[in-house]
Amino acid sequence: MAKIARDTPLAEITLRRYEKPTMQGRDLVRKLCLSMGLLQPGDSRDVVVDVFHVLLQARQRKEELHSEEIKNHVMTYRKENGLAMLGIASSNIRRQLKRLKDLHLIETNANLYRISEWSAVSEIFEEKIHNFVLQSVVSRVRDYVKKIDEEFTEHSEK
């Protein structure tokens, strides 16, 4: 039996379209996380929302935070707002930070996290996600579409 190669993507992005934003605060951050595939619809494990929210608030103060500080801020926020204390283990906080970093929304400097270059999220999205990741993914999908057309048009005419 032939061994099947592992299908590991070079880049991956999930985008969803929702209604225009009318909400604020955590709900707004949650909707962005849903829109960018960081959170699944109906998912109750939404600690990534609070991690990103904490970092957005820290950006306003130009403050870089260690993962344990982020965890403490998340725990305080969740307690104050009566949210379930799910997903707050240090290992999961670091996993969520990696996911945000993989999307280029945040960066690290000497184990301290911050919003990338203290930039506006709209700037980060345009520069790093739209112009870089999205364009490269769409370009590669186009390559596959063309190759499919070549192969299956060629074969059907024979």
Secondary structure: elements and pairs:
Layout lengths: L24 H11 L11 H14 L6 H14 L9 H13 L3 E4 L2 E4 L5 H37 L1
Antiparallel strand pairs: 1-2
Helix pairs in contact: 1-2, 2-3, 2-4, 3-4
Structure notes:
A two-stranded antiparallel ribbon has the order 1-2. A hairpin with a 2-residue loop joins strand 1 and strand 2. It is built from five helices and two strands. By secondary structure, the chain is mainly alpha-helical. It has two domains: 95 residues, Orthogonal Bundle (Arc Repressor Mutant, subunit A); 40 residues. It is elongated, with a radius of gyration of 19 Å. The longest helix is centred in the C-terminal third of the chain and has 37 residues.
- Give the overall pLDDT as a whole number: 93
Mass-distribution shape: elongated
User: How many H/I helices?
Assistant: 5
Number of domains: 2
What's the CATH topology name of the largest domain? Arc Repressor Mutant, subunit A
Cα distance spanning the termini: 31 Å
Low-confidence stretches: none
* Helical residues, percent: 55-70%
Largest sheet: 2 strands, antiparallel
List the strand order in the largest sheet.
1-2
Based on the coordinates given, report the CATH architecture of the largest domain: Orthogonal Bundle
For the secondary structure, the number of strands is: 2
The SSE string, one letter per element, is HHHHEEH
Task: Tell me the strand percentage band.
Answer: 5-15%
Class by SSE composition? mainly alpha
CATH class category label of the largest domain: Mainly Alpha
Radius of gyration: 19 Å
